[in-house]
Amino acid sequence: MMTTPSWFFWAALSACFAALTAIFAKIGLQDVDSDFATLIRTVIIVFVLAAFVWYADKWRDPRALSLGTLFFLSLSALATGASWVCYFRALQVGEASKVAPVDKFSLVLVAVFAFIFLGERPSMREWLGIGLVASGVLILAFKR
Description:
Shape: globular
Structural class: mainly alpha
Strand content: under 5%
Oligomer: single chain
Number of helices: 6
Largest sheet: none
Radius of gyration: 18 Å
């Protein structure tokens, strides 16, 4: 019997939570501005993650991190924040079943950026899958 690699388990779980994010956010955005909702969501995430890191005894002195690590984590945080603001705005005005797949076009962009910046080389089979995802996004995004 084959065991599922750890990365796949966590990635699949992430996909499930991301799907729930879209559904819960769409319902929760009915009576609130999307930017304010993003702030509320972010504050809750900070408290939950802080409790998790403390409970799991994973807290370390952030001053011990290299400047490069802090720089790229800061860029990642800014990109995440921008993504959340855009995502919540899209959910507020669009259908979750259309917004979420377009948001997942990030999969295609990650593959392209990883090729350019990280030197990753997906196989032809993997590029085919990435191309199919891109095609699916385009089909969902544009009306007849």
